[in-house]
Amino acid sequence: MEISPGTTLLWDAGYTASYKDMEFLPAAVLLTRVISKPSPNLVCFDLGHKHLASEMNFPRVMLLEGESCTQIGQSEEHLMVQCPNDDKFAVGDAAYAIPVHICPTVAKYKEVLTVVDGSLSGAWQVAARNLKINI
């Protein structure tokens, strides 16, 4: 049997949108920060290719508190978002995002932090991070 460990264990916004009848709630949420606001209605988050799957079209994350925002660009380190209500974001603010495709994101981190009832409860080591191919 083959499974997709990121999706099976953590779910993501892509499967939530594709399989609405299953009523799963995403279990993985990324913590990001507002890095800059380079022009009116433009917000830059520290959520680039190195942290988030980039193989699909935008949107690549469901940005909580950013429902009216449009993702317009991504580099290795940054995600550029056009927001008509950018006054709700200030440089340094924390923001939360649910990846549309969680699998590549999971393998990019050594561990994931677990939260229960709003409090940090522990950490899980990510075995997929240390892949080894034996020849």
Short recap of the structure:
The chain is mainly β and 135 residues long.
Number of strands: 8
Overall geometry: globular
Strand residue percentage = 25-35%
| Euclidean distance between termini CA atoms | 23 Å
Specify the number of helices: 3
User: How would you sum up the major sheet?
Assistant: 6 strands, antiparallel
Q: Helices and strands: which structural class?
A: mainly beta
> What is the H-and-E element order?
HHEEEEEEHEE
Please state the average pLDDT score.
86
User: Which value, in Å, is the CA radius of gyration?
Assistant: 16 Å
Q: Strands across the major sheet, in which order? A: 3-6-1-2-5-4
Task: Please write out the topology.
Layout: H1 5-10, H2 13-18, E1 30-39, E2 42-45, E3 61-63, E4 70-74, E5 79-82, E6 94-99, H3 103-106, E7 111-116, E8 119-125
Antiparallel strand pairs: 1-2, 1-6, 2-5, 3-6, 4-5, 7-8
Key attributes of the depicted protein:
six-stranded antiparallel beta sheet, 3 helices, 12% helix, 33% strand
Describe the structure.
12% of the residues lie in helices and 33% in strands. It contains three helices and eight strands, in the order ααββββββαββ. The protein is globular, with a radius of gyration of 16 Å.
